[in-house]
From TrEMBL:
The keyword Endoplasmic reticulum applies. InterPro entries: Mem_transp_PIN-like, PILS1/3/4/5/7. The lineage of its organism: Eukaryota, Viridiplantae, Streptophyta, Embryophyta, Tracheophyta. Involved in cellular auxin homeostasis by regulating auxin metabolism. Regulates intracellular auxin accumulation at the endoplasmic reticulum and thus auxin availability for nuclear auxin signaling. This is PIN-like protein. It comes from Dipteronia dyeriana. It is a multi-pass membrane protein. GO terms for cellular component: endoplasmic reticulum membrane. It is found in: Endoplasmic reticulum membrane. Keywords: Auxin signaling pathway, Endoplasmic reticulum, Membrane, Transmembrane, Transmembrane helix, Transport. The keyword Transmembrane applies. The chain crosses the membrane at residues 6-26, 46-66, 72-94, 106-127, 147-168, 256-276, 326-346, 366-384, 396-416.
């Protein structure tokens, strides 16, 4: 197939995303004001708690089976590699540009997490339905494309709400602590003097406590072996409990098991376990109304998220300035380095027999490296209360550049595989 034909095939899904995004941008303008700040927050809540979980659960239950999971086992690994490679490149960018502490997590998130949700669910079916698609029969291609996009969406949601959320939350907390520490240090140095406080603390630490008798008071007591053992076990259990509490606070299990993650687990269970699948999926399934209702709700997720992206781009036009070197670095990672490395990863996986020979599957794996930054990061910035304005600016440039870069990478991927 000629390169120009592949270019126009690749251009159609990108234009589709661009048009819906433009509608969201228009609805957010002051003249229309249907997607203002409050409206976006309400719609974002619906997407997070209702639309996306319904979409993920229904899609996985319908398209993923035990046999397909065996075939697609490399996809979660491939998505993990996009996060790992993107994070490593972002870490280098942070060190080179001297990014402030409170924005370091945002840079890592934008560089590592791609928008594998609504983008793949739009791009893959459109490519399959094009007359000059290089991937064969449109119905078979669309069926596979829905399975690939659904699994990508579920895996990406798990990674974002565990890894990326943890990184961004930790970065924001460290940024706040640095500000508070610098403020408190200046106050202490001005009011009291560092040496005086250190002296007071040192003296206070040397004084014996009235609540605890000294070792001389126990010189006549004999410690039994079992008492000593019980004491050590108590100390060990207290230490384990303390570390588990610290781990739970850091990871925030509530976010790890976000609605999308729970929906992915439920969808996979229904799809993989044959008896449950027969009860829920199919024209003669007794509980098919539950699946149909979830599918109906899930259909609202893609247009809603794409409209939110467009509305947030308007916020980016009015947002504060972000370092040009930082924006250029993120754009370089997501639009040049990662897509190029994706070719090498998939080619190597095919060479070692990890992905099979189906070209549409390989195309999807490559595409996962070329997608712009995930919109879920915007939701995270709202939750942690840091980086929201900067993220809008980054998203504006990311989607503006991705309009061209994504089309070119899609064309190149199809040309390499066909």
């Amino acid at each position: 197939m000629e390169f120009l034909d592949l270019f126009f095939t690749a251009l159609m899904p990108v234009l589709k995303v661009l048009l819906v995004t433009a509608v969201g941008l228009f609805l957010a303008t002051e003249r229309v004001n249907l997607l203002g700040e409050n409206a976006r927050q309400q719609l974002n809540g619906l997407v997070f708690y209702v639309f996306f979980p319904a979409l993920i659960g229904a899609s996985l239950a319908d398209t993923i089976t035990l046999e397909s999971m065996v075939t697609l086992w490399f996809m979660p690994v491939n998505i993990l590699l996009t996060f790992v490679i993107g994070s490593a490149l972002a870490w280098i960018l942070v060190k080179v540009t001297g990014t402030p502490q409170h924005l370091q997590g945002l840079v890592i998130g934008c560089s590592s997490a791609g928008n594998l949700g609504n983008m793949l669910l739009i791009i893959l079916p459109v490519i399959c339905q094009e007359n000059k698609s290089p991937f064969g029969d449109s119905s078979t291609c669309s069926t596979h494309g829905e399975a690939y996009a659904s699994l990508s969406l579920a895996i990406q949601a798990i990674y974002v709400w565990s890894y990326v959320y943890f990184i961004m939350r930790t970065s924001a907390e460290k940024g706040i602590k640095e500000i508070n520490t610098s403020d408190s240090t200046s106050i202490i140095n001005t009011s009291y003097g560092t040496s005086q406080i250190f002296s007071e603390i040192s003296t206070e630490a040397l004084l014996p406590s009235n609540d605890h008798p000294s070792s001389e008071d126990h010189s006549d007591q004999v410690e039994l072996p079992h008492t000593r053992f019980e004491g050590k076990m108590k100390v060990l259990l207290d230490s384990v409990k303390q570390h588990l509490e610290m781990f739970s606070e850091k990871i925030n299990l509530k976010m790890v098991f976000a609605p999308s993650t729970i929906a992915a687990i439920v969808g996979l269970v229904i799809g993989i376990i044959s008896p449950m699948r027969k009860v829920m999926i199919g024209d003669s399934a007794p509980l098919r109304v539950i699946y149909s209702s979830a599918e109906l709700l899930g259909e609202a997720a893609i247009p809603s998220v794409t409209l939110i992206v467009g509305a947030n781009l308007l916020k980016g036009l009015r947002g504060p300035g972000v370092s040009p070197s930082l924006i250029a670095g993120i754009l370089t990672i997501r639009n040049i380095i990662l897509p190029a490395m994706g070719i090498g990863v998939v080619k190597a996986a095919r060479h070692f027999g990890l992905v099979g020979t189906y070209t549409f599957y390989q195309f999807t794996l490559m595409l996962q490296y070329a997608i712009p930054s995930a919109v879920n990061i915007g939701t995270i910035t709202q939750m942690i209360g840091s980086g929201g304005s900067e993220f809008s600016v980054i998203m504006l440039w990311s989607y503006a550049v991705a309009t061209v870069s994504l089309t070119l990478w899609l064309t190149l991927y199809m040309w390499l595989l066909t």
